[in-house]
Amino acid sequence: MKIAITCDHLIQRMEVTSYVEALLALYPKAEIFTFVHNAGKILGDIEHHKIHSTFLTHKVKSIDSFNGARYLLPSTQKNFAVPCSFDLVFNISTGFSQSIQKCEDTRQITYLLQWPFEFEELSWKQKLFKKYLESWALKGLNQADEIWVARPSLEDKCRALLPNKKIKQVMPFFNLDDYPIIPSSHWKHDVLLISTEGINSSFALIIYDALKSQRIKFLFVGLDNHLEQAKKTINDDKYFFGQRCAGDLAPLMASCLGAVDFSHSLLPGLAVRSLAAGRPVALIKNGDYEKQLDQKQVFWLKDKSADSLLSFMDELKSKNVEPKELRRSVLKFNPASFKTKVKNNLASLESVFN
User: Fold this and answer.
1) Cα–Cα distance, 126 to 14 (Å, whole number)
2) Which of 239, 241, 229 is nearest to 208 (CA)?
3) Among 152, 204, 276, 343, which lies 20 to 30 A Cα-Cα from 173?
C-alpha cells in the first residue's frame, strides 16, 4: 500500500512533527505533502524523506508568516495534489491540510488536532478571510473517509457538522520517555516555569511583576517571538528560556518547582512534560483537559490572573509532591498507543490493496 502523509506545514519542530515522525516510523517509504517546508529546520529523520510542498515554501519562513498567508492556501490547489498512485492519505491536520487535493479513489484518514483558528487572536486581515477559510477547511474534512479527533470538544463539533462521517476520538501523545523523573539531591526545586503559549506581552509583564514582587524565581519557556514587547520592557534574557530540545528541557522539568500553562492547546505541552518528570502543574480549567487529565494531579487555576498564579504558589508550599503519581497520570499519552491504533486501523486496508 502506497501511503502519503499530509500536514499543514513543516516550518519548525512542533507537536505535529511528532505525529509525522510516528507515521514515518511505521511506514518509512511514505512521502510527505505539506503547504510549507522550511528545509533543514526540522531536526530528526523527517528531512531524510521525500517532501513535496507548494509555492508558499518560498514565501513563508515562520509560523507567524504562515498564519498571515493562510488566505493563499486555496490557491495552492491549482498545482498541488497527492498523485493518484497513492492508495491512502494519512493527514495530520492543525486546521487546513485535510483540504490538500487527492484522487477520488484514494482513501483519507484525517487526524484533526485543532479546529481552524482555534484559540487564536486574529488580525483584521485574518478575520476578513476567516469564514472563507473555515468553509474551505470543512469541505476538506468532508473528503476524509474517516476522521480522528484529539479532544472530546472536537468530536462534538465534527459530529454536529458532519453527522454522516465516521468519527472517533484518538488520544494525543508526546514522547514521554524524553522526560523521566531524575532524582537528585542537587535539585532545589525553586524555579517556576511559565509556558509562553496562551499569553501575550501584556500578561507576561503582569506575571513578571507579580512573581518578582514575591521574590519567586521563574522562567518563560517556549516560543517567544510574540512576546517581543515584554522582552524589551523586561530587558533581561535570563527570564526567557525559549524553545529547546528535549535534551535541554528534561533536566529543567525534573528540577523545577512546577509549571503553569494558561493555554488551551491540544496538549498543554509544558504541563504534561512537567507531570512526566514528576513535578506539579497548574492549568486553566478546560473541558477537554478535565476529561483527559487526572484532576487530582492538577491544580486548576480559577482564571487567567496573577492572583490565581499566586494561589498556586501558596498551594505548592503545603503540597506533598509524589513524583511517581504525577508521572502515572500522563502514561496514557504514550506514543505506543497511538502507533498501535494506526497499525490496527490500517491492517484491514493493507489487505485490500495488497
Assistant:
1) 22
2) 239
3) 204
Which pLDDT tens digit goes with each residue over 308-335?
999 999 888 877 889 999 999 999 888 8
Indicate where the chain has its CATH 3.40.50.2000 domain(s): 176-333
Which residue reads 517556549 in cell numbers? 222
CB atoms within 10 A of CB 69: 14
192 DSSP β-pair partners: 218, 258
Please choose, from the candidates 56, 60, 98, the residue with its C-alpha nearest in 3D space to the C-alpha of residue 75. Answer: 56
Backbone φ, ψ for residue 194 (5° rounding)? -115, 120
Question: Which residues lie across from 74 on neighbouring strands?
Answer: none
Confirm if 91 and 109 have CB atoms less than 8 A apart: yes
pTM: predicted TM-score of the whole model, two decimal places: 0.83
Which CATH class, in words, describes the domain spanning 3-173+335-353?
A: alpha beta
Residue 142 CA: distances (Å) to CA of 70, 100, 117, 118, 161: 20, 12, 18, 19, 10
Query: 65, 57 in Cβ contact below 8 A?
Result: no
Instruction: Give the 3-state secondary structure of residue 110.
Output: strand
Q: With a cut of 80, say whether residue 290 has pLDDT above it.
A: no
Segment (H or E) for 88: strand 88-93
Give the model confidence (pLDDT) of 76-103 as tens digits. Answer: 988 999 999 999 999 999 999 999 999 9
Report yes or no: 170 and 90 within 8 Å, Cβ to Cβ.
no
Domain boundaries 176-333, corresponding CATH code: 3.40.50.2000
Q: For the chain, state the CA radius of gyration.
A: 21
Q: What is the rounded distance in angstroms from the CA atom of residue 296 to the CA atom of residue 329?
A: 9
Nine cell digits for residue 353: 490493496
